[in-house]
Structure of PilZ domain-containing protein:
Amino acid sequence: MPGEGLVRFLAESGDASGAASADSRAVERRSEPRTPTNWIAKIRLPDGEEIACTVKDVSKSGARLGVPGAVVLPESFQLKVVGYDFLFNVRSVWRNDRCAGVRIERFGKQPPPTTAPEEPKPAADSPGTGRLLGRRLSRFSPY
């Protein structure tokens, strides 16, 4: 019977009249529940450019991002949530006007920023060249 799948869907939806309500037409196809969020994030493109965005909701395997409409997203990129040390490698799954769906492929801790090592400061050994740190002869001594 050609409409057998539709009949089964209507029967499982609980609507005895045979007409699907607006709520029953929206079938949840996700395997994992989404958690609503409002995180501020940055999209890191392969060339190093960063684009501000928001994470609207997240699950174990993906997220929905709020992105500016004029931004063209590549197939894969990195996502950094501001305030957390995690960096996500994601792949674009879908896109509409101001939202994009991504699949999380890999995540890890962001490496700490590298800084140049400080040059050692010359120690002031003699009383006339400067103050000695951590050593006080008396409270009346200027050295």
In short: The beta strands are 35-44, 50-58, 62-66, 76-81, 86-95, 99-109. Residues 4-13 form the longest helix (10 residues). The two ends are 100 Å apart (CA to CA).
